[in-house]
Amino acid sequence: MLPFLFATLGSAGANCKLPGCNSSTKDYCYSARIRSTVLQGLPFGGVPTVLALDFMCFLALLFVFSILRKVAWDYGRLALVTDADRRRHWQTERTEREYVASALHSDSHDRYERLTSVSSSVDFDQRDNGFCSWLTAIFRIKDDEIRDKCGADAVHYLSFQRHIIGLLVAVGVLSVGIVLPVNFSGDLLENNPYSFGRTTIANLSSGNNLLWLHTSFAFLYLLLTVYSMRRHTSKMRYKEDDLVKRTLFINGISKYAESEKIKKHFEEAYSNCTVLEARPCYNVARLMFLDTERKKAERGKIYFTNLKTKENASSMINPKPCGHLCCCIIKGCEEVEAIEYYTKLEEKLKDDYKREKEKVNEKPLGMAFVTFHNETITAIILKDFNVCKCQGCACRGEPRASSCSESLHISNWTVTYAPDPQNIYWEHLSIRGFIWWIRCLVINVILFLLLFFLTTPAIIITTMDKFNVTKPVEYLNNPIITQFFPTLLLWCFSALLPTIVYYSAFFEAHWTRSGENRTTMHKCYTFLIFMVLLLPSLGLSRCVFLPDNGAFFVNYVIASAFIGNAMDLLRIPGLLMYMIRLCLARSAAERRNVKRHQAYEFQFGAAYAWMMCVFTVVMTYSITCPIIVPFGLMYMLLKHLVDRYNLYYAYLPAKLDKKIHSGAVNQVVAAPILCLFWLLFFSTMRTGFLAPTSMFTFVVLVITIVICLCHVCFGHFKYLSAHNYKIDHTEVDAVDGRVNGQPAAVPPAPKSAQKYIAQVLQDSSPEGDAAESEEQGSQDEELINPDGMNDTDFQSCEDSLIENEIHQ
């Protein structure tokens, strides 16, 4: 089908003799189609004007950000300090004391290095509180500081960006240094120094032998991309937690199976197997909701209790949403005494919480997390359940049996490595099976109808032209109107609609954060490529390779580089959600709670998709329109700096798995493939499908696609191979249970912070939060009187450590 399509298009293109046909085609594209204002013949495609306007907007947005950062510092940073740091404080306090104590008793050089690393973040936060000092602070952030504060996933993400930057440097040198002069050497278009068309491949005649150079360079770019990504993955050492490597997630267990019976099965079926923990999963969605609401009510009561103690007066609130904004008292919106309201609400939620917690054990999900004593036995069990064993007509053999096999229904088990406990959405585990698939199907059908038939920018622009919305200005032929606003409109929609895609992935209720991010990345990338690249390019089939079409994408990349990255700094969607939540708050206590809990994890999936969309546009047009590459490099450099700032200052750390990063690497290869496809389409339209350049490009493209598909398929099915489960016998001997010739020591049970159990089930009772409530009460008192609050109070531990070091 594909060769027939190209042959048909090629015959049409071959019958068109240049330059006469080219002139009529150009007249059609510029004059017909209801005189669209999107494609206009402008001096150098309006690129200089768009560049100047976008740069001025960039400076203005940076100025606005600096002001907001100064006057609204709590947006982003306060939540990080009071939420993330306090959440991890009880986990790290004891470890930190032991770490510093060991440092104080070690060698002086080693002690200095470790204490310096402890206090580095303190010094850093103290030297970037000027109006514009954050600009230089971005360059002073080290990868080690990002790793300590944001996690290893942030470092892998930034490393990916640096390799893309290096790739664009190499592509830019070749495109601007070689391909651009080759395009200039043609004489097909007008000999005007201000003509953008002279920089494109359209300036070369169809019989020019230099067209072979373009195809060769496209293949070279593919090799450079593969090499760059290979270099990135070779440096990506993704280390899983020891607990994760020793834990399996089992789905399909009998719902009422007991943990002791699960332990008994594995210890009977597998020799030298010791099960440390077997934790069944329960439906805790409602319990987690009640726990969250109970804690909010408790914080509200403590806040107003402290306020009453301070001011010796009771506070009245309107308990309706947006109650603090209501200035008049009407029936149904009467004010109530704050402490009394929150006390009653807390008692009600506490009773509901207790009743729900008593019923949790009656809601098993048929899942379990099983932790073993070492990685070897874990790999053996995983291999036993997943490796393909062809026995007659049955492709999969039965795993080892025990006396409990029948009651546990082990033939129905699905066994995988368990994700990190921090990676799990415990409240989503109850949504599974047929219900999950129906939910996913409905959401994605609605998303498809919304995005591709209603809100595609190309369709909106065409609709605007059909209703003569742009009729009064189409005769102005002004670059601001004809180039700046269409590219700005395209960027606005390409920035808004991925947010819709993200929320669709959220409502799909994935079990892990990694799964949610991967789905967001693949869906966003696919949609953005269709919306930004394919539909605008192929909407006018005979206008694909006009010079102004290339200028449109150059202007889009410029808009993404300056306006897009500046808007990423401002984080407008998050700021809007922050304002909406503040408006919906019923009292000052709830507004304070919103401020302290508005920080979110960095969305790696959406960030990867957005970045790879622009990269794909740049690579696709790097041959046909080489002037786009320097602006793509500018985008990646600014994107890297903006993401370093946001990761360190604005977002909570996220714990994902390596699949999100490997998935991004696989998607990068689509960019040079689309570049080859563009050249094939151009060659077919100009010279026909049977032309030597077309056939060569087609063969290279097919071979590349086949290789990539095989790689992806083998990547998906490699778990069927026994070679995937390699066991290090030098470290652990599974037969005699000895490690390096010595008896194997069973590791201690995992810490409570790393148990495979929802946090809400680890809390003994609502009264168990008394200590936390007292701590929050003192913090509430400080928030009531913010003048008495000092940033250094959060760093008292580090300051005392440094002081001890000085006195040594």
Describe the structure.
There is one protein chain. The chain is mainly α and 808 residues long. Among the domains are: 2-71 and 150-240 and 456-713, no CATH class; 286-359, no CATH class. The chain has helices at 2-14, 20-35, 47-71, 74-104, 108-126, 133-140, 143-150, 152-184, 211-235, 242-245, 259-269, 285-311, 338-359, 375-386, 405-408, 433-453, 457-466, 479-507, 513-538, 547-570, 572-584, 588-596, 604-620, 628-649, 659-668, 670-687, 692-717, 759-762, 770-784, 796-806; strands at 247-251, 275-282, 316-317, 336-337, 364-372, 414-417, 738-739, 742-743. The strands form three sheets. The protein has a four-stranded antiparallel sheet with strand order 2-5-1-6. Strands 3-4 form a two-stranded antiparallel ribbon. The protein has a two-stranded antiparallel sheet with strand order 7-8. α3 (47-71) crosses α18 (479-507), α9 (211-235) packs antiparallel against α26 (670-687) and α9 packs parallel to α27 (692-717). The chain is globular and about 85 Å long.
